[in-house]
Prior knowledge:
Blueprint: E1 2-6, E2 9-14, H1 20-30, E3 36-53, E4 58-64, E5 68-80, E6 83-93, E7 99-119, E8 125-129, E9 134-138
Antiparallel strand pairs: 1-2, 2-7, 3-4, 3-5, 3-7, 5-6, 6-7, 8-9
Amino acid sequence: MEYVRYGSKVLIRLDPGEEVIDSMTEVCKKEAVSLGIVSGIGAVNKAKVGLFNPVTKEYHSTVLEEDYEITSLTGNVSQMNDAVYLHLHATLADAEHKAFGGHLNAATVGATAEIWIDIVDGKADRRFSEEVGLNLLIF
């Protein structure tokens, strides 16, 4: 992994075998990012994506293990219990151009990933909501 900071923006390049969320968390810690906007593209060969069921308040995750293009990685950086909290969604396309997507729980880079974090001057925390079943933003 390599990254560079340009003012309020961070550009990250991930290499084969690197885990996306772990790497982004490391950069956010090093650069003291407490609030930001994420966007990215790249290629992964393993990913875990999930869908939240609001009735049961459970995530249902699927592990995808093929070569996929990240056609869209989007989300945000916030804080929960004074730690970096990444809320990411991804759309992944396979060799037949079929798309899979959802909440990104994990992803291993297959070729490269290029991820931008646009740092926002401020802070937003999260707290678990019993009513909704998710970690919601609090201001």
